[in-house]
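Exercise 3.2. Students should predict the tertiary structure of the chain below and write it as structure tokens, then compare their answer with the key that follows.

Predict this chain's 3D structure.
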Amino acid sequence: MSTPIELDENSTTILAEGRRILNAAAQNHVNIRWMGAGAIATHSPRFRYLLKETGRRLTDLDFMGSSKDFDRMQGLLEPLGYQPMRWVGEAYTVGERSIYVHGTTGIKIDIFFDQLKMCHTIDFRKRLDADPLTISLADLLLEKMQIVRINEKDIIDTIVLLSEHDIGKNDNETINVDYISNLLSQDWGFYYTVTTNLNKIKDYPSKYPGLAPENMENVRGKVDEILQAIETRPKSSSWKFRARIGTRKKWYVDVEEMIR
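Answer key:
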């Protein structure tokens, strides 16, 4: 890629707003980290052009915070023009999640606290500070790969992330495969969803002409590297027991049912 391709106007606005919120959080000593597509785009300046080429538009913002800051979040966001939504789903109790909407732009902010509870749960209580701006690259990958009914926009986000970053054994601008493989070696259901989705990723890059052939192979090679690390990691006894049951028993939380 020789000349950077600008994102669409809406996506550019979302990225600028995410930075504005993070700057305000830092000034007010509120510990939050960016999540989701906006975080991936921010962390992937060389390959986020793929978002525009594939028609992927950023529409909202997602953050992970500490439950210690739950009560302070409203004081942070209201001066920035955001108001809390009063209903966030019966599955979420006070201290787990907040949703805010900007009164003028309509931008929605979804803030989770301590854990991401979706199809599978990712615990951030010991990992919130792994990266100074976003959740870690490994957690950004898991955030997308934990979606049982994964859609094309999440696959595009993952391709951008994998195109940009190397696979490594720490969280310093690499996708920490040791963390991923260890986490999945304890939970067969999470393992099954992630490995199923990673294999789907391998078939997608060929759909996008903006990704050069050598980069298509690069993405597939990184997926294979992650899968190999996951498969070769010794599994816990509870993982092995659950694996014998397999998909005969539901292995994930149905998010649509959870927030209905």
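Discussion points: The beta strands are 32-35, 61-65, 82-84, 97-102, 108-113, 115-117, 121-123, 166-168, 174-176. The two ends are 44 Å apart (CA to CA).
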